[in-house]
Design goal:
Structural class: alpha+beta
Radius of gyration: 19 Å
Largest sheet: 6 strands, antiparallel
Strand content: 5-15%
Shape: globular
Length: 362
C-alpha cells in the first residue's frame, strides 16, 4: 500500500482505454479484489466523452442472491453518494440562480435558523463539513420519529465546534442543507433532484426509494434487518434517511453504474443549459477548507492518498459505493459494491479502492 505523499504517475489519456478494456489491468484488479472484499462489484472508467470501459465481478449477495451477478443496470443503495448525486447539484442550481448565498450566516436570511445555533453557520460551511455541527445523528433517540421534529432538533442543536475551525464529516450538515434547499426551491428533494439533475442527464434509473417491486428485483441487497426478518432491498439502509421518509440529502438515492457514468461525464463536460454546470462545478472542485485537513471541496473530498494539487476528488457511501473525478486529468471512475450485505469490515474495501484509484488517477 502506498503512503500519503508518495508520488504515483497518473496514466496518460492514451492508456485509459487499454486499462479499461475487458481483461485489462482494471478488470483484473477488481476481479482479484472482490475475493478479498467478500462482495461483488461493478466498475467503470471514463472521460468527458463518456464511458471507456467497465465490468462486474462476483455474486450479488448470499443465499438466494448468490446466483445473481451485478451489472451496469444493478440498482445500488448509494448511501452518502446521495450527497453528491442529489443534494449537491440542487444546491448548485439554487446558487447559480441567486437563491442560495454561500457565505451569509443562515440566521440572517433563513427564518427557521434565526436565533438558533444553526443560524451561525453558512451554506459553504455545510457543504465543506466545517459547520461545527454534532458528529453523530441519534435522531430517534433525541427527537423522536416525526420528520418536522427531527429537522427542528437539527436546527436547534448546540454546535460541537465554532464554524470554520475544523473539518468534521457529519450527516447533520446534509440534513440541514436538505431542509434549506427544499424551503428555497418550494419542492421536495426527490422531485427537485429528478428535475434539476437526473432527467436532464437521462438518468432514468436514478430515484429515491422505496423502490417498487419490479425495480427492487434489480437492486443489490444490503444489510439484514431484524425488524422485517429479511435483507433490505430497495429500501434505504441508512437509519436517519429511513426516519426522514427515505428522502434526504444524506442518503436515500438508488442508482446504477450506467446512470452514474452519465452524471460523472457531466461533471467533466456539462451539457449546455445544465442548471448546476460551469461555475458551480468549478467552485466545488477546489479547496474550501482553508488548509484544514482532510481537505475538501464543496461536498467532494480530496481523494485519500493524494494531495490537493492533484485535484482528484472522491466520495464514498457506507453501503460500499464510491466514485472519483479529476477535471485536471479529464477522467472519472466508479466502483460499486454492497459490502454491508456481508459485514462491516472496511479495510479490504479500502485497500481495493486505493489500488483502483492509483491505477486510474495515479
Amino acid at each position: 500500500m502506498s503512503q500519503r505523499g508518495t508520488s504515483h504517475r497518473a496514466p496518460g489519456a492514451d492508456r485509459l482505454p487499454a486499462l479499461a478494456a475487458p481483461g485489462g489491468e482494471l478488470d483484473r484488479l477488481v476481479r482479484a479484489g472482490v475475493r478479498s472484499v467478500g462482495a461483488g462489484a461493478v466498475w467503470a472508467v471514463g472521460d468527458a466523452g463518456g464511458t471507456l470501459g467497465g465490468g462486474g465481478h462476483g455474486p450479488l449477495g448470499q443465499g438466494p442472491y448468490a446466483r445473481l451477478a451485478p451489472g451496469p443496470d444493478t440498482l445500488y443503495d448509494l448511501a452518502s453518494l446521495t450527497k453528491i448525486v442529489a443534494l449537491w447539484p440542487c444546491a448548485g442550481a439554487l446558487w447559480q440562480s441567486g437563491l442560495l448565498p454561500l457565505d451569509e450566516p443562515l440566521g440572517r436570511w433563513w427564518p427557521p435558523a434565526a436565533g438558533r445555533p444553526a443560524g451561525a453557520v453558512t451554506a459553504r460551511h455545510l457543504l465543506a463539513h466545517t459547520a461545527g455541527m454534532l458528529p453523530y445523528t441519534r435522531f430517534e433517540q433525541l427527537y423522536g420519529r416525526d420528520r418536522a421534529a427531527i429537522r427542528a432538533g437539527v436546527v436547534a442543536a448546540a454546535l460541537h465546534r465554532a464554524p470554520g475551525t475544523a473539518v468534521e464529516y457529519t450527516d447533520r450538515a446534509a440534513v440541514l442543507l436538505t431542509h434549506l434547499v427544499e424551503d428555497l426551491a418550494g419542492e421536495p428533494l426527490d422531485a427537485l433532484a429528478a428535475r434539476r439533475a437526473w432527467q436532464p442527464l437521462g438518468m432514468a434509473d436514478t430515484r429515491y426509494g422505496p423502490l417498487d417491486a419490479a425495480l427492487a428485483e434489480r437492486a443489490a441487497p444490503t444489510e439484514y434487518d431484524e425488524r422485517t426478518g429479511t435483507h433490505l432491498r430497495g429500501v434505504v439502509h441508512d437509519p436517519s434517511a429511513r426516519l426522514l421518509g427515505g428522502v434526504s440529502g444524506n442518503a436515500g438515492a438508488f442508482s446504477t453504474a450506467r446512470d452514474l457514468a452519465r452524471f460523472l461525464t457531466a461533471v467533466l463536460a456539462p451539457p449546455p443549459g445544465l442548471a448546476w454546470g460551469g461555475a458551480w462545478i468549478e467552485e466545488s472542485l477546489r479547496e474550501q477548507t482553508g488548509g484544514l485537513r482532510p481537505a475538501r471541496g464543496l461536498s467532494w473530498l480530496y481523494a485519500p492518498g493524494t494531495e490537493p494539487a492533484d485535484a482528484t476528488f472522491v466520495h464514498y457511501g457506507f453501503t460500499g459505493t464510491g466514485f472519483w473525478v479529476s477535471r485536471r486529468l479529464g477522467r472519472w471512475a466508479l466502483l460499486l459494491t454492497n459490502k454491508v450485505h456481508y459485514d462491516r469490515v472496511t479495510q479490504p474495501l479500502t485497500d481495493l479502492r486505493n489500488a483502483y484509484r492509483r491505477l486510474v488517477f495515479g
